[in-house]
Amino acid sequence: MASEPPPAPSAPDPAAKAPSKARSRRRRTIALVLLSIVLLLALDQVGVRELSGRDFPSSDPLALALRARVEQLAAPAWGGRVPGSEGNAAAARSLADALAAANVKPFPSLGGYLAPLSEPTSPLGHNVLGWIPPEGESRGTIVLGAHFDHLGMTDEGLLLGADDNAAAVAVLLGALPSILAQHPRPYGVAVAFFNTEESPYFGTPRQGSQRFVAALPREIGGLSAVRLAVVLDLIGGVVWRPTADTIFACGAEKARGLPAIVDGVREPGLDVRRLGIHAVENIPGYVPQPFSDYDVFRDHGVPFLFLSSGRTPRYHRASDLPETLHYDRMARTSRWIAGLVAALSAAPPALSFDPRGEDFAAERDTLRYAFGAAAKPWTSIPGTSPITWARILGDRSRLEAMAEPGHTWTPEDARAIERASFRLQCLLYRFPVCFTL
Fold this sequence. Notes:
It comes from Polyangium spumosum. The protein is of the alpha/beta class and 437 residues long. The protein has two domains: 53-358, 3-Layer(aba) Sandwich (Aminopeptidase), CATH 3.40.630.10; 363-436. Helix content is 40%, strand content 13%. It contains twelve helices and twelve strands. Strands 1-2-6-3-7-11-8-10 form an eight-stranded mixed sheet, with helices on both faces. The protein is globular. The N and C termini lie far apart (80 Å).
């Protein structure tokens, strides 16, 4: 039987090439996406570094005195100023000496600068209190407060607490000469260095600020005479260049008249940005959590202002050392606080506490500034991942929508502000679950 001829080769089918081209395009797209992610990671880590005070050499004359004070308080010899320890007692005595050297007198009713945390004495030590009396007819008292205790020895080692909270103590001491030079002074000024702010005393009657409020010196005239409490905590740290010259003023929205006063006080080189206290305390999924000694004043309906530069990755770590602080910004903060006291003296006679006070527009503007920088790879927060960056873009978009003309504020806006604020805080603190919240 004759063999059949081989079949003729068939012509190429154009339709068969289409799936192959589509697969190639998909592979190229996936490769580009992966390359983009790698580049984002590289951009985040090249040229964007976690900063400290070493990146900001001091040039302000006041900065030298502030650093000397921090180095004294955070010296290893005082062991982290643990309540009840000799180091804590030595720190209290040094602060009493510092008030005397600044010509700030003790409250006459106390007979000295050291106020025991319980009567007649306390094994935990003392608050350290100073008094600048008003001149002429008094309009009340301004409290300037910061805690001076810290944690001492932990499993990590010896925690000396330079930023937490020797820095704030130094800043308040730095403000006193300018405050004393102001005349007239319609307000008395109570300088309060609180003890026992750290765990396990925080939020208990043994907390130093709680004791201060429970046993006010007679010269103040009762808690209703306290017109404003200004509390400082974590005021010296820096890890991100866009906020290197920034401090956050929280809680002004809870006092009628205070936001305008805060906004009106200016200090060259210092950027003071207001943020609602809810944006600091309302952690997604948890009950609101106060962060410092301002809480007792708010609980008693006293107008308050909480000043902080925010937590850094050195918070409650052995790396919280004097050389990591931004002393020039601290010096500017001292002068700003003196300016705030002067502005209050020139303002109308009273601030009134408003527990429902809100200022979402100010919070939006503060966070828009931060997220505008955080969303750019070349100015991102150290440690930002691509997933977190995507979340930041979403936060920025929501904040921009709040700036649309005629925008009406809603409870959803408040929650969006809280989540954006928390994401910013925990990125700066290097808390790794930010992007999930």
